[in-house]
Specification:
299 residues, 14 helices, 0% strand
Length: 299
């Protein structure tokens, strides 16, 4: 916790240093315009919430409601999705508060987990933004394919949502109908992301398990450690099966046989993990071997 506070202080000091020529000359104008939280964008140019009456759109209660929704969604995703394998956001926060002088551990976070966290968090901000002008599409258009394919949706529906978002942003000027369509499309994608299995923070290989997951188990009871380990192994097995099925489909082989082999391997892996006495390196190795075996069967 102390280390985090030091990093934040360094970031603030850097910003003050860069802006010092302006701060020292016109401090009130600098901070007033840099942090103008009361600024209201013009209703006519907004692509988001154009269907809301202008009197409501520019009102402070509406702005505060969206801000509250934004914070609530971030907390929910952080607790139930992003920190699932740490047993929730509150456990991470409590551990930091109880050991404020403990140095942060270096954990090999998987690049896919980092990408998932950043792009979903950015999309939540887009969903809750009171005003989205046309240039704001550049904030998230590049992430739409990734988010759609992370979500557990059939491919035709993914393409339909993608096409709808693109169409709504290409209607000028925006209309109440196009704005409502965009909001409903964003909502559908957000709900799909909520239902998607959380990405594996440390990867699915044995070395990542040892370096990351075991570090998160410090201070846990036996039952809690077993539950976390089982969730992680099951999800790692599912991801390995999905990758194997995709490779088999790309190679033009029988998808039915691959799916049957994957289902059988998943059942065996889950039973083996549940029967384990506790999380161990042997358990990690077993999960990895099961995933590898599944991949060979599918291919």
């Amino acid at each position: 916790l102390v280390q985090i506070a030091g990093l934040l202080a360094a970031a603030v000091a850097f910003q003050l240093l860069v802006g010092w020529p302006f701060i020292s000359t016109f401090p009130q104008a600098y901070f007033g315009r840099a942090f103008d939280l009361g600024r209201v964008f013009i209703h006519f140019w907004s692509v988001n919430f154009k269907f809301v009456p202008e009197s409501t759109f520019v009102s402070k209660p509406f702005a505060l409601s969206l801000l509250g929704l934004h914070l609530l969604l971030l907390l929910l995703f952080c607790h139930f999705c992003w920190c699932k394998y740490e047993s929730g956001m509150f456990r991470v926060a409590i551990a930091a508060l109880l050991s404020p002088f403990k140095r942060l551990q270096t954990r090999p976070l998987h690049p896919d987990h980092i990408t998932y966290l950043m792009l979903v968090g950015n999309f939540i901000g887009i969903f809750c933004a009171r005003s989205l002008h046309y240039q704001f599409y550049s904030w998230y258009f590049f992430s739409i394919p990734y988010l759609l394919w992370v979500a557990p949706l059939p491919t035709p529906l993914r393409l339909l949502l993608w096409l709808t978002i693109e169409l709504c942003w290409n209607i000028y000027p925006s209309t109440p109908a196009s704005s409502l369509s965009l909001l409903l499309t964003h909502l559908s994608l957000l709900l799909a992301l909520w239902m998607a299995p959380p990405r594996l923070p440390f990867g699915a290989d044995e070395q990542s398990w040892k370096g990351g997951l075991e570090a998160n188990m410090e201070g846990m009871g036996k039952e809690e450690r077993e539950a976390m380990w089982q969730r992680y192994v099951e999800q790692a097995t599912r991801e390995a099966q999905a990758a194997a099925a995709a490779e088999a489909a790309a190679a033009g082989e029988g998808s039915v046989e691959s799916a049957a082999a994957a289902a059988a391997a998943a059942e065996g892996s889950a039973e083996g993990t549940a029967a384990a006495d506790g999380p161990s390196r042997e358990g990690a190795s077993g999960g990895r071997k099961a995933a590898g075996s599944t991949k060979k069967k599918a291919v």
